[in-house]
Amino acid sequence: MINIVLFGKPGAGKGTQAEFLKEKYNLVHLSTGDIFRFNMKNGTELGNLAKSYIDKGDLVPDEVTTNMLIDAVNANPEAKGFLFDGYPRTISQAEALDAFLTSKGTENTATIALEADDNILVARLLERGKTSGRVDDQDEDKIRNRYQEYNEKTAPLMDYYKKQGKFHAVDGIGEISEITERLSSVIDNL
Q1: Structural domain boundaries, residue 30
Q2: 15 among the known binding-site residues?
Q3: Is 162 annotated among the ligand-binding residues?
């Protein structure tokens, strides 16, 4: 079983690349953003709670996110592997994911980060916000707040996964196909 954590700031292209990687490697794509949006669209209690954080540009608390992800993994018992997109975002989430995967007899195979300049990513998100309907993609201050949250809470995961020998950085700027090739090269050499 191959389990990949796809890592990067909002707008780095995780969702776009996940579509290609899930097909190529026969993985179940678990996007916390998609899970949250489903719950918010359906007005669930958890969805309303997640929305209150997201609308402020804040990250959803670890416990809520982790439990949603565990449910999503458990809903796919025949999976050959998972592509985690947007999770983990903190050390405590990474530890929870490691413990959960160990309890299932598997592990995180690799963490791959899509890296890109903040100004390029802000422009991407503002453009996406014109059609996505996402409030958090339509306001530059909220976007930059998300990056500050990322730098404070998520960036430390690089060291966490480097210590495990599982961290790989990939340039996230260029044509979509070029970025897919870079990601595939990392995965093929695991």
Answers
A1: 2-188
A2: yes
A3: no
| Residue 88, marked binder | yes
Instruction: Report whether 43 belongs to an annotated binding site.
Output: no
Query: Does 124 show up as a binding residue in the annotation?
Result: no
Instruction: Check whether 154 is labelled as a binding-site residue.
Output: no
Q: Does the annotation flag 14 for ligand binding? A: yes
Query: Known binder of ligand: residue 134?
Result: yes
> 134 and 143 in contact (C-beta within 8 Å)?
no
| Residue at 150: amino acid letter | Y
8 in a labelled binding site: no
Known binder of ligand: residue 89?
yes
The β-bridge partners of 167 are: 111
Task: Give per-residue pLDDT as tens, 111-167.
Answer: 999 999 999 999 989 988 898 888 888 889 988 988 888 888 787 899 999 999 999
Q: How many C-beta atoms lie closer than 10 Å to residue 153's C-beta? A: 16
Q: Does residue 65 contact residue 80 with C-beta atoms inside 8 Å? A: no
Q: Residue 68 belongs to a domain with what CATH number?
A: 3.40.50.300
pTM: 0.83
d(CA 63, CA 59): 11
What distance in Å separates the CA atoms of residue 150 and residue 10, rounded to the nearest whole number? 9
Q: Is 164 annotated as a binding residue?
A: no
Q: Maximum CA pair distance of the chain?
A: 43
Per the structure, the count of domains in the chain is: 1
The dihedral sign for the CA sequence 25, 88, 54, 67: positive
